[in-house]
Amino acid sequence: MMNEDVSLSTWMVVEDEPDIYDVLLAMFEIWGIEGIAFVDGGEAVSWIEDVDKGAITSELPELALLDIRVPEIPGPEVGARLRKSGRLGQMAIVLITAHRLNRDEEDQVKQLAQADALIYKPLPPMPELRKILATIIEKRKSKTHSAKPPTLGHPPPPATESPLGKSEGIKPDGNSPSRSDRI
Hints:
The protein is α/β, with parallel strands linked by helices and about 180 residues long.
């Protein structure tokens, strides 16, 4: 079950629409979340490269909200670059767009970015958006923590049941479209 009081400390935004950019940063401030924001994909990729070089020492984000259509480097390509990052690759990635995509286009952009979700603009009301994003972050963290690191230099141990038991996925709230990864 999701804890709505979970600490959601730093989120990243790549959005070129000034009004949406400002609204997102204002919501983050209300929620007590630090925002790292970029108006184009080129700035975001430069920042990612700085993080990978160790030039950024501030707290790293746990969520990236990426507009699909931003100048220089599109959001899905920024997402793909995030996934390749040694320090940022496990963060939750949510694509956002005002442009209606058919199912194949949705699948293509989500696959390229390895995104956790796609949300259409206009964005949901603040409380609903926060709940959606917190759920996506928890689901991503659960995936990350349940993934076993590769064994280097030794054969893997025999398969046994984990002492932690099975993890449960987050179920759609019933109000979502038929595919749980599309909002």
